[in-house]
Amino acid sequence: MKKALVLLSGGIDSTVCLALAIKNHKKENVTTLCINYGQHNKKELEHAKKICEYYQVPYNEVDITNIYKNSKSSMIETSNIEIPKESYDEQYKKLEKNENVSTNVPFRNGIFLSICAGFAIENNADLIYYGIHTEEGIARSLYPDCDEDFNQAMNLAIYLGSGKKVKITAPLSEIYKKDVIKLGKKLKVPFNLTWTCYENKEKHCGKCTACTDRIKAFKENKIRDEVTYEEMYW
After folding, report:
1. In terms of DSSP bridges, do strands 4-7 and 30-36 run parallel, antiparallel, or are they unpaired?
2. Beta carbons within 10 angstroms of residue 44's beta carbon
3. Is 130 exposed, middle or buried (0-12, 13-18, 19+ CB in 10 A)?
4. Cα 79 from chain centre
5. How far apart are CA 127 and CA 144, in angstroms?
6. Contact 5, 33 (CB under 8 A)
7. Residues 6 or more apart from 219 whose CB is under 8 A from it?
8. Would you state the pLDDT for residue 95?
9. DSSP codes, 166-230
10. How far apart are the first and last CA of the chain?
11. What is the rounded distance in angstroms from the CA atom of residue 205 to the CA atom of residue 220?
12. In what order do the strands lie in the sheet with 167-169?
């Protein structure tokens, strides 16, 4: 039986990946790695711990806050840029040439997966799960380390760099958020334990792009989202 490492953020996508990994490998062969990169929404790490407790799998955390300590991304807690509360299309219209949306954290998945590769080798894991999914509209082009070309390139690099011992898998890469919710429901994922919001408040703000995408996906599935929002959306 192959051993799996899940890159866990505490959000829906990575939690669905964890559920898939447990289904495919059994929980005794699954471990997790969570990354503290100085994110604004530190709350996601608290929820990642709760998710690991729920599934009874190890919680491992790595601190790489120094990498992004001078980042201008609004996703970093030391940044003075506010989290956008408008759609990607509206944000894109305001961008200057060669700029990206403020919620983009440069090469985040590349760094995370490289760390996962080293951790996987040291812990005898053969496969790394991570939760990129297909984005709708302009969002597809705003996160270059989330597309299929990137996924294939990183898979080859990690496979070769690990001495052909470790591969990565992105089982959600070809489906939309609504389909991720549908799959998660089938796998009985505890959506109530997940954290999606870009803010770090007691409740989901319901206005950032992460929240609006989540709300839309649940509504498309006609499923009530059990997390709390600052305003009622149901």
Report:
1. parallel
2. 22
3. buried
4. 20
5. 22
6. yes
7. none
8. 86
9. -EEE-TTTTS-HHHHHHHHHHTT--GGG----SS-SSSB-S-SHHHHHHHHHHHHTT----S-BS
10. 43
11. 20
12. 61-63, 30-36, 4-7, 127-129, 167-169
> In Å, how far from its chain's centre is CA 162?
23
203 Cβ contact partners less than 8 Å away, ≥ 6 residues apart: 227, 228, 229, 230
β partners of residue 128: 5, 168
Nearest alpha carbon to residue 11 among 135, 175, 196? 196
CA distance 163 to 15: 28
Angle at 162 between CA 160 and CA 167, to 5 degrees: 75
Question: The dihedral of CA 202, 204, 205, 210: what is its sign?
Answer: positive
- For 137-188, the pLDDT digits (tens) are 777 788 989 888 999 999 999 999 999 999 999 999 999 999 999 999 999 9
Instruction: Convert the pLDDT of each residue in 65-123 to its tens digit.
Output: 999 999 999 999 999 999 999 989 899 888 887 789 999 999 999 999 999 999 999 99
In one letter, which amino acid is 12?
I
- State the Rg of the chain over Cα: 17
CA distance 151 to 153: 6
The one-letter amino acid at 89: D
Do the beta carbons of residue 11 and residue 195 sit within 8 Å? yes
Q: How many residues does the chain have?
A: 234
- How much is the pTM? 0.96
